[in-house]
Amino acid sequence: MSTQQSSGAVGNIIVDGQKLWDDILETAKFGGTAKGGIKRLTLTQEDRQVRDWFTKACEAVGCSVSYDSLGNQFARRPGTDDALAPITMGSHLDTQPTGGKFDGIIGVLGGLAVLRTLHETKRETRHPIELINWTNEEGSRFAPAMLCSGVFAGVFTEQEALDKKDREGIRFEDALNGIGYRGVAPCGDHPVAAYFELHIEQGPILEAEHQTIGIVTGVQGMRWYEVTLRGQDAHAGSTPMRMRADALVTAARMIDAVQKIALENGPDAVGTVGLIENTPNSRNVVPGEVFFTVDFRDPDDGVVQKMEETFYRIANDLAEKAGLTLELARVWDSPAVHFDVECIASVRRSAETLGYPARAIVSGAGHDAAYMARITPTSMIFVPCAGGLSHNEAESAESDDVTAGANVLLRAVLETDMR
Ligand code: HGY
Ligand code: MN
Ligand code: MN
Ligand code: MN
């Protein structure tokens, strides 16, 4: 290994891409599925396993690892001026129920590759460097998404997070205690000098344009809603059609409306109904109750607002016509985010210096960086994924691209340290 390098010019320091790829394959076994994906919902035993692995891997490259009151994990490498606020990197290790090997994971393992490179080259930095694994980024088990980076950034309270319940009625607090990752330090108790997040694009643009790096300038606006429709359970055979209060038929009309509203507000708007529960869900009972979720997004918050107003009008009208009761609530509102120009410039310069084809891009997916941008200079680095596919067990990315992303992350962190 080269001797201790001063932190003067960034130099031509790069990560060990093979080790990074090995880490991706090794951690994929925690919650690995038969189809080659990962099911590692937040605060489950699989999540605990990968967290334990993360602690050991970071300690092996000279970091101390701690976790706060919501289980956010912090791997810290001291700086020569350790009183400075840390420059941070991060993402998430939890996945969707049918998640892939790369969403969130390459941001954490790419950060680990950066820490490993600094350790092995004995590279000093003025600032401490921290790598963060955020609890409950996906929002699949406990809504909303980015819950614990949101608490860290002051958007939600710690108690709001602890009180969240999943669809089986299990409390966040009990699940967190159950995996032994409830720390003492209050969430959000330490300042941060900057935050960079490496992530797959989860969309088709970079691959289609043969770009290696996405210079992420921001994140689109997104809102989540919960809808409960109540009619009356009834016999499927003996109840005349005119006497039914069928919650599922009206829900189907509302779900169709979600798609129509997104298409009418295009070209960027998207609308999704991802979760539905039909009760009693029996083949010969007219369904008396349906619960479903709505996800609206667009880079322009004004468009999201317009989609919300249109959906509320249609939903109330359909429920009234069908004689059903409607409960409709917005449960999450994450406005569009613009990242820090200096951090964006660092990512751009790093990609250019390393000779990677790159282009600016806005993120369609939500990320912990969206909340970190509220409290510290923040930006993101994207790399392509095959067919733009994500939140799917077939999600895949190229080792060279992941390595390129980690190299850009390393340079952006070192450049920021020298600013
Ligand atoms: O919903 C999202 O965009 C993120 O994957 N949590
Ligand atoms: Mn993600
Ligand atoms: Mn995701
Ligand atoms: Mn994220």
TrEMBL record:
Residues in Peptidase M20 dimerisation domain copies: 218-321
Source organism of this protein record: Gluconobacter wancherniae NBRC 103581
Cited PANTHER family: ALLANTOATE AMIDOHYDROLASE, ALLANTOATE DEIMINASE-RELATED
InterPro entries, sorted: Amidase_Cbmase (IPR010158), Bact_exopeptidase_dim_dom (IPR036264), Peptidase_M20 (IPR002933), Peptidase_M20_dimer (IPR011650)
Protein name: Zn-dependent hydrolase
Cofactor: Zn(2+)
Family affiliation: Belongs to the peptidase M20 family.
Keyword terms, alphabetized: Hydrolase, Metal-binding, Zinc
Annotated binding of Zn(2+) 1, by residue: H92, D103, H199
Cofactor note: Binds 2 Zn(2+) ions per subunit.
Protein residues bound to Zn(2+) 2: D103, E138, H391
GO molecular function: hydrolase activity, acting on carbon-nitrogen (but not peptide) bonds, in linear amidines; metal ion binding
Record SUPFAM superfamilies: Bacterial exopeptidase dimerisation domain, Zn-dependent exopeptidases
Domain of life, per lineage: Bacteria
Transmembrane segments: none
